[in-house]
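Slide 14.
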Amino acid sequence: MPAIRERVVASLLNASPELAQRLAQDLGMTLPAPLPKALETPVAPEVDQSPALSLMARPGDGGIRTRKVAVLVAQGVEGASLQKLVSALVAEGAVPRLVGARLGTCIGAGGEKFAVDATMENSPGFLFDALVLPDGPQAVEALDADAHTLEFLRDQYWHCKTILALGASSALLAEAQIPMTLPDGSADPGLILADAAGVDGAIAAFIAAVGGPRHFGRENDPPRAP
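Slide 15: predicted structure.
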């Protein structure tokens, strides 16, 4: 209700005028007068800063144990790099999930068989801690033709998750119009690209990035339209 929104903004003016101004703008309303204060002389807070309330105060041990990693797959996926990646993730205690357009068996370019255990419809991108885009021109073409792929990729990007693009799948980043740098122009440490020769190093870099905090340097308001 408009009256409730006005009271919330009016109350917020006593705590953070900048935030109140921004909220009023987002709500499409004129900035109201501040509500009367309960005390004319504010009492100093008992706690200036609480590490317990900070996401950065407990960064973890750098491991990826229990992290859910989405690995997009489609027919014709490059099997050797995919198997190497999955083995490395499992060895670190992560939970890789092969995600495709539908459940069933996916046949790799070399005849490998992969069991797809989640779909982009029943397991959207923001549910995962990180994303891997596979190599293989045929698989990339199939993924590119599915609008769910681009939505999945954008969800991962704007939720500041780590993304690994192997070989031909870098085309999916371009198709989704994913910025290759942070808003300040610096390199994005959460976007890792690798060709066939650099798979081993890319997997190691990916595991290290997933073990760290999310890549909040991507955040801007409003997000850039893809």
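Speaker note: The longest helix spans residues 79-91.
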